[in-house]
Design a protein that fits this description.
The complex is a heterotrimer.
Chain A (H helix, E strand, L loop, with lengths): L17 H5 L16 E7 L5 E7 L1 H5 L3 E6 H7 L20 E2 L5 E7 L2 H9 L2 E6 L6 H5 L14 E9 L2 H7 L2 E9 L11 E7 L4 E6 L7 H8 L7 E4 L15 H14 L3 E4 L2 H8 L4 E10 L5 E11 L10 H4 L13 E9 L14 H18 L4 H8 L8 E2 L5 E2 L4 H11 L2 H13 L3 E15 L10 H7 L7 E7 L5 E5 L8 H13 L6 E4 L20 H28 L6 E4 L2 E4 L2 E7 H10 L12 E6 L16 E15 L6 E11 L6 H20 L31 E4 L17 H18 L10 H9 L20 E9 L3 H8 L2 H7 L3 E8 L2 E10 L2 E15 L3 E10 L2 E14 L2 E13 L1 H35 L14
Parallel strand pairs in A: 1-12, 10-11, 14-15, 20-21, 27-28
Antiparallel strand pairs in A: 1-5, 2-4, 2-6, 3-5, 7-15, 8-13, 9-10, 9-12, 13-14, 16-17, 18-26, 19-20, 19-25, 22-23, 23-24, 26-27, 29-35, 30-31, 31-32, 32-33, 33-34, 34-35
Chain B lengths: L9 E7 L2 E7 L5 H8 L18 E4 L2 E4 L12 E3 L13 H8 L9 H14 L5 H8 L10 H17 L4
Parallel strand pairs in B: 1-5
Antiparallel strand pairs in B: 1-2, 3-4, 3-5
Helix pairs in contact in B: 2-5
Chain C lengths: L6 E4 L3 H11 L3 E4 L5 H6 L7 E4 L9 E3 L3 E5 L4 H6 L3 H4 L1 H6 L6 H4 L4 H7 L5 H8 L3 E5 L4 E5 H4 E3 L2 E2 L6 E8 L5 E8 L9 E8 L2 E7 L6 E5 L4 H14 L10 H21 L3
Helix pairs in contact in C: 10-11
The chains are: A alpha+beta, B alpha+beta, C alpha+beta.
């Protein structure tokens, strides 16, 4: 853009956002005042992965002083409709469980009260009867038609199954010298912003309209989804965002079902309702990136040239296909061949449902899941062909002269010089020194490895890519979807001051600063004098479905729209000024806060005066030069819909990243230490270098977490195990090294400023780069994230020797989550012990914390119990059944307990054998503990279960001892022994 | 001291950022909620409510504390400092705050309040810390935006500026 | 994540605290630094009827040197003990372990005795107290008693402290001539709960090794006069005896491997440091 005098762009100016944030004057959602009478919500969540809801009893909760309403699936169903689902299938997706829970943490009831404390008190009083159902957790198991079905409307757990073919992959595989394959299970994780979800919703019955303020981040394609669910037209769902948002990284897209849910709660309560998600809710149930199982094959020539790729991807979206899923699977569709010139490609994409939290946007969105297998594959090609990995990368790169380059699957790589970027990284990043360092470390017997990763980073999503999940026929029926409107408004006030409005909904990316820089350059002003408003209001702002802060679209798309709006305004102002300065508009220039005649700087006017003209003297300005307010909508023509051959340019811009790193693995602990990390980026024109650096170091730290620490882990039964920040481990300053940042610039020809997105790339490149280095250090092949020391120990320590005879016997590892066994000797006879086990009064004294034991039948008991360890105590309703009675030798006990902290269920077999004059009681058990207590106390659960079960037998032994003493065993001293 | 009953609000007196305050809270109210929603000091943020993220870090009687791990009645008679008390005046930033702005050591700014209170406390007692000491100290804070690199740089730079400002200290 | 309701008593004297404990028993919880109790309250894992704040009982706020021990009162914060100038000289093992307790921002509030009272199986202070054969002094309205650390930690988060008692202070044995100490810990991140922590006290050729993070409580074992493969065998036996379990962060097998390897490193370092 020749007209823009570039002064401010490219400089790392101080951010306009910072002074308020540094002094505690930020305005985040929970900092905003609310209307008097606003109520507060708390949400009761499912402790089960899969269960039918038989009854919800909320009368006691509703009767609690201060409680205004309790909303359940029935009310939500009555006042709203199901959220739209992204595949063509007769299934529903509600923001709260309706009749059935399908993942741990799914909302079951919303209590609305005068404050959050009271709302949580109310949750304690709600009783839910669940009938647990078998759960399916593993995506491969979900493929099995016999697996427990989540949505009957689908007739299986496979929501979508599409195959794609580009070029002639069969022939390439038939002709290639080698086939190289990798299989990967990419885990679940999330970028977990430090601020959780929050919103305030109000319903106005007189206009049938909702007014919601939420820290939602877009995309606003979800606005019509929410409006439809709330059964109002879009103009009756006013959605606003607060001025500040405490990070999102995609995650705050996932608040949208809660906007509907709390909207309904506000309507039911007849008052505004505020909900601030807490951290336990966030980790358990907000949203997750998808986990994916991928098998990737390459047809490879002897020189390492890749002739074809074949992907088989099984995407796990959790319990519901929540909009915009299955977008994670399709966002990379146009760049499935990465940075490489590969003509032949086949893809099979399956989307499965499992009993886990529904998935959604997360930094990298589809990139981490796709580049992990691709770049692991490139390393495997190098190893199997005995080639240098960098050489394999080089031989396959898209050549510099080929841009814009059309990929096999229809992507259009806008610009780049991949070979030059790699060369720069190798030299400036010191690859030769790093290799020498590895050699030296290995000579000393240390475990040191080097990894590489090459990534094309897509940005500015084509809103049409998601329709690639539909068949061409289905797309024709649905009508075309493509493009991505970016918007910007610039207004001049009567004093000539400039305001900018963007619908980009930043969460810390400094949009206000960069927008000011862009306008300052265009209009010859100081950015300090430009005010940028970035809080959003759907009722007042210019916006479209692509608005919001995702797919790294700000610099490339919104920044471009700001620039175009400024140029349009400038063109009009130039005409206004030309009249006043008596020169041709073409001779007008804007600089230093003045509008002047080129070549005659004295013939000038202050900018403010020119800018105010259309307010004070519109009559002196021609109609088509009125300069008051300019709104630009901009979309790129390259963002076309999928073709009938399923080719899709899924993103407008494609940056380039080449990373390499050196890692060392501790021989004692098997912990990975990143010794050196180099990351080379080409994100087109850089508008603010410090912000670009901040995006890279921030993304790098999150990616390091995904590589080494973070996992949204589930037990095989579907219990969520990472419910606190003591279990979901974010890297701290101690874990994150300082990466070396390098860059080249090849401006995008498709964006107004030449910029591309940059925020997400390291989430795609870094996990696999570290994994490749670890594989190199250990000589390992199959490696799945996160690379925990416990996992790597198998490679470092070798196989563990068997238990020596000097040690006591060890309980066998059970198939269930908790398993144990033990024994105790008592002085009573087997007959006496047997009688106690079947006696209500005895059970009442030996069941730990039993308040009341009620005999339902000869073989069934019910009890209220307070179970706890240390200060952790909870009250549960327990049911115990006896079976397989073999008096007086053995009995099986099965039982379950449910309470506010979760549930437990277990099965045990007790065997009584006479020993001397007493009895040896042996027991074995399998137990499962779920719900809140499993999510937050996983580290201690096993020990707690063992302890409570031992308490039971200790009490039995004591009681048996007393019985013996009072009977004819009175002479025998109580004999009770417990193994340590 | 009398027993504060669970279901009533009780008067709590303390000094916050140099000013005497007097307000009411139930015994169970967390200090985070007391500061933010009773006193209106919303600069102290809530990130996890279980003491891990550090966003709510404040100073109580000269020692750092997680406000989310503190009950409101525990601060009776105490001296508290929060992020709102760090700047020398409403229109000026402290040396540390300026260093954060200059180094782009914040993005969303949500974890920042706790980190600033922590570092302000630390630098007053450790005028010449090494990078590894700062990293170890900041291990008690989570930031999801920056990758910590600019935070560590800002802390080192602020330490240097503070030393220069007090050459004889 | 907000606590259920409870009464709050700020005790100014021990007698006041004892009286509430005597009256309320298991329905009362003592709060000192609150670093463990408050999250349990917020998650509603613990639901006491009354919380007794003991931080304003002046006699509990002291660190005192006694003949063979350091007495640390129940209101002494972890940071205060760490800052106590004589600590590294009087008991190096505690000085080595304290920086591993949480983070600076939690040590500044958390108390030394609070960590002992909670008896988390991964906590460093109980481990060190056990390795050093320290003692815990408990008091109630009518009694005062001392319990050896060996007897105090009875199981997962469970101790010999009765419902009507509170910890007055702990007694950390002072270093004796000829002793060497070492502390090693491995967690996923620095400041996390230990996956395995080892504390060793070497004297002559014998070593006492304490291991935390594996069993349901810290466990210490005296290893007399063992070297080379005999020491390896003893560590292997110990590793198996602790009945390690799988959890999210580490497999049982990995924990055993760390007991063997970190344990050995810790013992060797303690021996090197004998003075």
């Amino acid at each position: 853009m020749a007209t823009a005098a570039t002064n401010w762009l490219g400089q790392s100016i101080e951010r306009v956002e910072d002074a308020a944030l540094l002094t505690g004057r930020g305005r985040f959602i929970d900092d905003l005042g609310v209307r008097p009478g606003t109520l507060y919500a708390a949400i009761l969540r499912s402790p089960h992965a899969h269960a039918a809801i038989r009854a919800i009893r909320a009368d006691a909760a509703k009767a609690l002083p201060g409680v205004a309403a309790v909303v359940t699936g029935a009310e939500v169903r009555a006042l709203s409709s199901s959220l739209a689902v992204g595949v063509k299938a007769p299934i529903e997706c509600w923001p709260i469980a309706v009749d059935r829970v399908r993942y741990v943490g799914e909302p079951v009831a919303v209590a609305v009260a005068a404050d959050r404390y009271l709302a949580e008190d109310a949750l304690d009083l709600i009783e839910v009867d669940y009938e647990p159902l078998p759960a399916v957790i593993d995506p491969l198991a979900a493929l099995d038609p016999a697996s427990p079905m989540l949505h009957e409307g689908l007739r299986s757990n496979i929501a979508s199954d599409r195959s794609f073919r580009y070029g002639d992959p069969e022939r390439a595989f038939a002709e290639a010298a080698r086939k190289v394959s990798v299989s990967v299970r990419y885990p679940r994780n999330s970028c977990t912003p430090i601020e959780t979800y929050g919103l305030v919703a109000e319903y106005d019955p007189s206009e049938d309209a909702y007014d919601v303020t939420a820290n939602f981040m877009g995309p606003f394609s979800l606005h019509p989804v929410m409006a439809r669910a709330l059964k109002v037209p879009g103009n009756r769902l006013r959605l606003r965002t607060p001025p500040d948002s405490g990070g999102s990284f995609g995650v705050k897209q996932g608040i949208f079902p809660y906007i509907v849910l709390i909207g309904v709660a506000a309507r039911a309560a007849g008052r505004p309702v505020k909900w601030i998600e807490d951290r336990l809710e966030h980790l358990t149930a907000s949203v997750s990136a998808t986990n994916r199982v991928t098998k990737l094959d390459a047809a490879v020539d002897a020189d390492g040239r890749i002739r074809a790729l074949a992907y088989d991807q099984i995407e796990d979206v959790g319990a519901h296909i929540r909009a915009p899923e299955p977008a994670t699977l399709y966002r990379m569709h146009g760049n499935l061949t990465g940075a490489y010139d590969i003509k032949n490609l086949s893809v099979r994409n399956r989307v499965v449902l499992t009993n886990k939290t529904p998935t959604g946007l997360n930094r990298g969105f589809g990139g981490p899941q796709m580049y992990y297998p691709l770049e692991r594959l490139v390393q495997r090609i190098a190893i199997e062909l005995s080639l240098d990995p960098v050489e394999v990368i080089r031989r396959n790169l898209v050549p510099a002269e080929a841009f814009p380059f059309e990929t096999a699957s229809g992507g259009l790589l806008d610009s780049g010089d991949y070979a030059r970027a790699i060369e720069g990284a190798v030299v400036d990043g010191g690859l030769a020194e790093l290799r020498a360092r590895r050699d030296e470390a290995r000579r000393q017997g240390r475990l040191y490895g080097i990894g590489f990763a090459t990534v094309v980073e897509p940005s500015v999503s084509n809103m049409g890519y998601i329709t690639t999940v539909l068949s061409p026929e289905e797309r024709r029926r649905a009508g075309p979807k493509n493009g991505a409107q970016a918007t910007a408004t610039i207004a001049l006030d009567p004093g000539g001051a400039v305001s900018v409005h963007v619908a980009s909904v930043p969460q810390g990316q400094g949009h206000r600063t960069v927008a000011a820089q862009i306008v300052a350059d265009a209009l010859g002003l100081d950015p300090k004098n430009i005010r940028v408003i970035a809080d959003f209001d759907s009722a007042r702002d210019a916006w479209s479905i692509a608005s919001g802060n995702y797919s790294s679209r700000f610099a490339a798309a919104v920044g471009g729209a700001v620039h175009l709006a400024a140029i349009r305004l400038k063109t009009r102002l130039a005409r206004v000024a030309a009249t006043q300065l008596n020169v041709q508009p073409g001779e007008i220039e804007f600089a230093s806060g003045r509008v002047r005649a080129r070549g005659n700087p004295d013939n000038a006017l202050p900018f403010n005066r020119v800018a105010a003209t259309s307010h004070w003297s519109p009559g002196s300005v021609p109609d088509d030069a009125q300069a008051l307010r300019e709104t630009v909508f901009w979309t790129a023509p390259e963002l076309t819909p999928p073709t009938d051959a399923d080719e899709i340019n899924s993103s407008l811009c494609h940056g380039f990243i080449f990373d390499f790193c050196g890692v060392e693995i501790d021989r004692v602990t098997a912990a990975v230490r990143v010794d050196k990390y180099v990351t080379m980026h080409d994100c087109g024109r850089v508008l603010h270098p410090a912000m670009v650096a901040g995006q890279i170091t921030g993304g790098f730290a999150q990616a390091l977490g995904a590589a080494l620490y973070e996992e949204y882990a589930y037990s095989p039964d579907g219990n969520f195990l990472a419910g606190t920040f003591a279990d979901y481990l974010l890297p701290t300053t101690n874990e994150v090294p300082t990466p070396l940042l390098l860059r080249i610039e090849t401006p995008s020809p498709f964006t107004p400023l030449g910029a591309k997105g940059v925020g997400e790339g390291n989430c795609m490149s870094t996990p696999v780069c570290i994994a490749n280095a670890v594989a190199d250090a250990l000589g390992a092949n199959a490696l799945d994230l996160p690379l925990t020391p416990s996992k790597l120990a198998a490679f470092v320590h070798g196989k563990e020797k068997d238990r020596p005879s000097s040690a006591g016997t060890q309980a066998a590892k059970g198939a269930r989550a908790l398993h144990g066994e033990g024994e105790t000797k008592v002085s009573a006879s087997p007959e006496q012990v047997w009688a106690m086990l079947l006696d209500v009064d005895t059970l009442a004294t030996i069941i730990p914390g039993a308040h009341a034991v009620e005999k339902v039948s000869d073989k069934k008991f019910r009890a209220d119990v307070t179970i706890g360890v240390g200060p952790v105590k909870g009250r549960y309703r327990a049911e115990i059944k006896l079976s397989d009675l073999d008096p007086p030798r053995a009995v099986s006990l099965s039982g379950s307990a449910t309470g506010a902290l979760g549930f437990g269920s277990g099965k045990g077999r007790i065997t009584l054998s006479p020993e001397g004059s007493g009895t040896r009681i042996s027991y074995g058990y399998d137990a499962e503990i779920g719900g809140k207590i499993a999510a937050i106390g996983g580290r201690l659960l096993d020990g707690a279960a063992r302890m409570i079960i031992r308490q039971f037998f200790a009490a039995l032994a004591r009681r048996a001892g007393r019985a013996a003493q009072s009977g004819f065993f009175a002479r025998i001293r109580l004999l009770f022994r417990r193994r340590p | 001291m009398p027993r504060l009953s669970a279901d009533a609000r009780h008067r709590i007196r303390a000094r916050i950022n140099g000013r005497a305050i007097e307000a009411e809270a139930e015994p169970r109210m967390l200090l985070t909620d007391f500061l933010r929603h009773v006193l209106g000091l919303t600069g102290t943020h809530i990130g996890c409510e279980h003491g891990v993220c550090g966003a709510c870090t404040v100073e109580i009687d000269g020692r750092l504390a997680r406000a989310c791990l503190t009950l409101a009645p525990q601060i009776e008679g105490s001296e508290i400092r929060t992020v709102e008390g760090l700047a020398p005046s409403p229109d000026r930033l402290s040396v540390l705050q300026e260093a954060f702005r200059r180094h782009h050591a914040l993005q969303c700014g949500f974890c920042t309040a706790g980190i600033l209170v922590s570092l302000d406390h630390y630098l007053a007692r450790t005028p010449d810390p090494s990078e590894s000491e700062i990293r170890e100290f900041l291990g008690g804070h989570l930031c999801r935006c920056t990758g910590y690199v600019p935070i560590v740089a800002a802390a080192l730079n602020a330490a240097k500026k503070l030393r220069e400002a007090k050459p004889h200290a | 994540m907000k606590p259920a309701r409870f009464d709050y008593v700020r005790a100014d004297t021990l007698a006041e605290a004892h009286a509430v404990l005597a009256a309320e028993g298991e329905n009362a919880r003592v709060i000192a630094g609150g670093q463990t109790l408050v999250p349990m309250l917020s998650m509603r894992l613990a639901r006491p009827k009354v919380v007794i704040d003991i931080m304003h009982i002046a006699p509990l706020a002291k660190i005192a040197e006694e003949k063979d021990a350091i007495r640390v009162g129940a209101a002494v914060r972890q940071a205060e003990l760490l800052e106590w100038p004589a600590l590294a000289e009087r008991q190096p093992l505690m000085a080595m372990a304290l920086p591993w307790v949480g983070h600076a921002q939690t040590r500044s509030r958390g108390t030394v005795c609070g960590s002992v009272a909670h008896a988390d199986p991964s906590a460093e202070i109980p481990l060190v107290l056990l390795a050093l054969k320290g003692e815990i002094e408990l008091s109630s309205r009518r009694h005062k008693r001392r319990v050896a650390a060996e007897e105090f930690f009875t199981g997962l988060m469970s101790t010999a402290c009765a419902e009507n008692e509170l910890i007055d202070s702990i007694l950390i044995p002072s270093r004796r001539v000829g002793e060497g100490f070492a502390f090693r810990e491995f967690g996923r991140r620095h400041g996390d709960f230990a996956i395995v922590a080892c504390a060793a006290v070497a004297k002559g050729n014998s070593v006492r090794l304490g291991v935390g993070g594996v069993a349901d409580r810290p466990v210490a074992r005296d290893l007399l006069d063992l070297d080379g493969s005999a020491l390896d065998d003893a560590l292997d036996t110990l590793a198996w005896d602790l009945e390690a379990r799988d959890d999210l962060h580490a497999s049982a097998s990995y924990r055993r491997a760390l007991v063997r390897r970190l344990g050995k490193e810790t013992i060797e370092e303690a021996r090197r440091c004998r003075a």
